[in-house]
Amino acid sequence: MSAFKLLLLPGDGIGPEIAAEAEKVIALLTRAGVAQFEIERGLVGGAAYDAHGVAISEDDMKRAHAADAVLLAAVGGPKWDGVPYDVRPEAGLLRLRKDLGLFANLRPAICYPALADASSLKREVVDGLDIMIVRELTGGVYFGEPKEIVDLGEGQKRAVDTQVYETFEIERIGRVAFELARKRGNKVTSSDKANVMKSGYLWREVVTALHKREYADVQLEHMLADALAMQLVRWPKQFDVVVTDNLFGDMLSDEASMLTGSLGMLPSASLGAPDEKGKRKAMYEPCHGSAPDIAGKGVANPIAMIGSVGMALRYSFDLPKAADAIEAAIGGVLAKGLRTADIKGNAPSSVSTSAMGDAIVAEL
Amino acid sequence: MSAFKLLLLPGDGIGPEIAAEAEKVIALLTRAGVAQFEIERGLVGGAAYDAHGVAISEDDMKRAHAADAVLLAAVGGPKWDGVPYDVRPEAGLLRLRKDLGLFANLRPAICYPALADASSLKREVVDGLDIMIVRELTGGVYFGEPKEIVDLGEGQKRAVDTQVYETFEIERIGRVAFELARKRGNKVTSSDKANVMKSGYLWREVVTALHKREYADVQLEHMLADALAMQLVRWPKQFDVVVTDNLFGDMLSDEASMLTGSLGMLPSASLGAPDEKGKRKAMYEPCHGSAPDIAGKGVANPIAMIGSVGMALRYSFDLPKAADAIEAAIGGVLAKGLRTADIKGNAPSSVSTSAMGDAIVAEL
Ligand SMILES: CC(C)[C@H](C(=O)O)[C@@H](O)C(=O)O
Ligand SMILES: CC(C)[C@H](C(=O)O)[C@@H](O)C(=O)O
User: Fold this and answer.
1) Active-site annotation holds for B250
2) Ligand nearest to the backbone CA of A289
3) Which residues participate in Mg(2+) binding (chains A, B) (predicted)?
4) CA angle, B20 as apex, B17 and B24 as ends, to 5°?
5) A309-342 b/e with 16+ CB inside 10 Å = b?
6) What pLDDT shows up at residue B201?
7) Element (H, E) at B60
8) Is the confidence at residue A347, as pLDDT, over 90?
9) CA distance B18 to B338
10) How far is A10 from chain B (nearest CA, A)?
11) In a 3-state reduction of DSSP, which class is residue B89?
């Protein structure tokens, strides 16, 4: 039986509550002999700041490097609004992405039929929606230098962020998108602002050349990021795989996840490049945030977190059947009418975080 | 009777068709003695490139500076995909904004009740929606330097764009938003990515200080741009005035306009700072693009363009009653069931561009 090391980072807000449900699922997988999972625990975000005064400790970074996969729940909250910029909760997340080289962020936007009515969009617009957003995660304006605030005197400051992309960065994320498309609807929509940004101009050039050279069998279209923000609202089913840069991917994937009415349901994967043995560094986390307003109440939806375990089985551990089983179990409890508060809609009642976790374990 | 000089730039695609309908309305205003409007015509975008090899000529820039207001229809189209970057159609638009100092872009997202069913969102989510997006238009990543592509050799290039904001730029756009909010719902939502961008950090600091100093009577909230992209889909009626930077404003205003189901209906205003006499440079244009796919067919919706004349009356010519009359006329023809193809919905038939223009003139 294969053995895998997981680093679990519950983080802030509802993080610890939903992480506990993911642990139940992992324990079951071990008991069922799917594989041997060893779970280490660490701190990130506000939790790390409170304990160590940093957004993630060097020790936990070492553990992250050594793990076969990192499972992160959520970071941040108003409690840490006043902390210095360099140790704010988000810095821990950004460091994990950057230091582990997790350049490919996969964010599925799936509308569960049972939940289509929870969307603010008309049922026919979102029912059956299945988009995969591939977001570049270690480049662009998130990390480019200079990134600074300069005091100009007389009450004036100048703030600068730098959007940088090199050919190889665009190529490798493009490749991820085309490979995924071949296993799905065979269509890639690449998004940029080539009409105003030089990085967008290069993005389009590189994706176009890569397509021509290696992926001519996949349908490729280019769409400006503002037009894509529109088209996601108008008719999201026109999309299969969307590939875009770090900042556009941040906004567009959030917009897309909200379309589904299933925000608490959506997991994500952040992947590095394969090493000589074909192994990739990887981190899995829900698309949603730390929801400090409902933290500690036992009402958070653990499905995105449990779905993140499913994605880890698929993308890191090569256990697609176990991944399918988790997805089926999630579908199963939904079909039975189980709902946490966020997806309650017109349902007569809702269940707690742990009741939802237990039900999924039972279904498995 | 006051006299005003207008520069009309029909531009590309459906631009000339909808510009012609705006001219009918302006002619009527002159005949009715509302004011004396003198219309000059110029070229911008692909049309200027075809005629002069540039995105806008120096002559037309001079006319734009001399005019009391510029009316622009739309620029761009696939015909000019291959032209050099510096003379692409969008460059004309960007130069007008920058050289005229039009830092404040007002983009209303209004859902006309008669059209609520044309939205992909549920009626109750958008019916009566009335948001004003205030987008900074002459700064940020659109204009910051360096902005370049460097050849690194061995098939590698590096593209750089620079996002820059100074205190005074954030302050003056913030002021526009707060002033507008006072005349509307008294609430401003300021949007940034303060958690990853230094420019966002400064943005938040400056807006917060301005609020405290001069606009404490207005309700202010901050929302990350990705969260705003989500919330616009979830429950857009929570917003009154939204203020944000050039790039976020581009995407968020397009997303917001698509919510309304009324994209062909939405005008916009781009305003400069008032001079000693209180006069501002100004440009008015539809929120929609040049729609090359339907150009020349006489089916485009002229309402956003005619609405742009209305905004000019309100913001440049201090003729609020005439502006109200135009808005009422638009509402009137809609109430009578007149529809162009884009807003046809389940209506039995649709009318042409010029029939819609004529009907609005008749209603006026
Ligand atoms: C928390 C924040 C830094 C992060 C981002 O902007 O990437 C989040 O919004 C996300 O999308 O994962
Ligand atoms: C045409 C383009 C340069 C422009 C922009 O990005 O500002 C357009 O999308 C807009 O929003 O007016």
Assistant:
1) yes
2) 1
3) 226, 250, 254
4) 145
5) bbbbbbbbbebeebbebbbebbeebbeeebbbbb
6) 97
7) helix B58-66
8) no
9) 16
10) 20
11) helix
Helices (H), chain A: 15-31, 46-52, 58-66, 89-99, 123-126, 167-182, 198-214, 225-234, 246-259, 303-315, 320-335, 353-363
| Chain position carrying tokens 């665009």 | A170
Most B CBs within 10 Å, among A125, A198, A288, to test the B interface: A198
Query: Which residues of A are part of a known binding site for Mg(2+)?
Result: 226, 250, 254
Count the Cβ atoms, other than its own, within 10 Å of residue B29.
22
**Beta sheet of B187-192, edge-to-edge order:** B36-41, B3-11, B69-74, B282-286, B267-271, B104-110, B130-136, B241-244, B187-192, B219-224
A129/A110 Cα distance (integer angstroms): 5
Instruction: Give how far Cα B75 sits from Cα of A143, A195, B176, Å.
Output: 33, 12, 27
The mean per-residue pLDDT over the stretch A63-70 comes to: 98
Q: What is the pLDDT of residue A135?
A: 98
- pLDDT tens by residue, A258-311: 999 878 899 999 999 999 998 999 999 999 999 999 999 999 999 999 999 999
E strand or H helix at B102: none
- Give the E-state strand segments of B167-254 in sequence order: 187-192, 219-224, 241-244
**pLDDT by residue (tens digit) across B168-209?**
999 999 999 999 999 999 999 999 999 999 999 999 999 999
Residue A36: phi, psi to the nearest 5?
-100, 115
* Structural contact between residues B134 and B175, judged by C-beta atoms closer than 8 angstroms: no
Evaluate whether B175 touches B274 at the Cβ level (below 8 Å).
no
Cβ-based burial of B301 (10 A; exposed 0-12, middle 13-18, buried ≥19): buried
Q: Per residue in A114-130, pLDDT tens?
A: 888 889 999 999 999 99
**β-strands A241-244, A130-136 pairing:** parallel
Q: Are A133 and A239 in contact (CB under 8 A)?
A: no
- Gap between the Cα atoms of A74 and A11, Å rounded: 5
- Of B252, B251, B234, nearest to B242 by C-alpha is B252
Measured distance CA(B321)–CA(A200) in Å, rounded: 44
Q: Write down the CATH number for the domain with range B1-107+269-364.
A: 3.40.718.10
Mutate to test the pocket of ligand 2, among A191, A196, A230 (most ligand atoms within 8 A of CB): A196
**A230 to B157: CB separation less than 8 angstroms, yes or no:** no
What is the pLDDT at residue A346? 79
Binding residues of B for Mg(2+): 226, 250, 254
**A255 contacts B198? CB cut-off 8 A:** no
Three-class secondary structure of residue B136 per DSSP: strand
CATH superfamily, domain A130-259, is Isopropylmalate Dehydrogenase (3.40.718.10)
**Cα angle for residues B353, B357, B363 (degrees, 5° grid):** 145
> Could you tell me where in chain B the CATH 3.40.718.10 domains are found?
1-107+269-364, 130-259
Q: Give the separation between CA A293 and CA B234, rounded to whole angstroms.
A: 17
Cα B309 from Cα B25, distance rounded (Å): 8
What H or E segment, with its residue span, contains residue B235?
A: none
Within 10 angstroms of residue B119's Cβ, the number of other Cβ atoms is 24
CATH architecture of A1-107+268-364: 3-Layer(aba) Sandwich (3.40)
Contacts of residue B334, Cβ cutoff 8 Å, sequence gap at least 6:
B112, B114, B115
Q: What is the DSSP string of A244-273?
A: E-HHHHHHHHHHHHHHTT-GGG-EEEEE--
